[in-house]
């Protein structure tokens, strides 16, 4: 599949790399299919781009990368159903990141993590009702390294057509 983007031109996206939200993405309920875009100069963040409308995208990150011991995700039976979780399945967790003040202020939404079943690429966005989780947790001045190993099949900038 080819996706025309404003930032990277045409991206070649494998069908099996598309992430599907059964109920849509919170706030964007009409958008069910997204793809991770791995841009070298944006690491350790990824772009989470709507396949339905490539002008809609979010910076995302692995929350365990920034807070390895302090992030807990509990899935309800309904969440497990949306993800079609089976015994032996693995999940990946991402948080939406806000980048403000020309990159000087970077925060993560820990109240609305994205949970992905890595087997079937189904995802859901949780709402965490925990007073310790906040929607704008500062994550600036943390270590940096590629996250591409966490997201198999991410489209890369090098896949963009000139």
Automatic annotation (TrEMBL):
Metal-binding in keyword set: no
Main location per the UniProt record: cytoplasm
Gene3D superfamilies in alphabetical order: BH3618-like
Superkingdom per UniProt: Bacteria
Keyword line: Bacterial flagellum biogenesis, Cell projection, Chaperone, Cilium, Cytoplasm, Flagellum, Translation regulation
One Pfam short name: FliW
Subcellular location: Cytoplasm
Subunit structure: Interacts with translational regulator CsrA and flagellin(s).
HAMAP family xrefs: FliW
Protein family (similarity comment): Belongs to the FliW family.
Protein role: Acts as an anti-CsrA protein, binds CsrA and prevents it from repressing translation of its target genes, one of which is flagellin. Binds to flagellin and participates in the assembly of the flagellum.
Protein name: Flagellar assembly factor FliW
Organism of derivation: Eiseniibacteriota bacterium
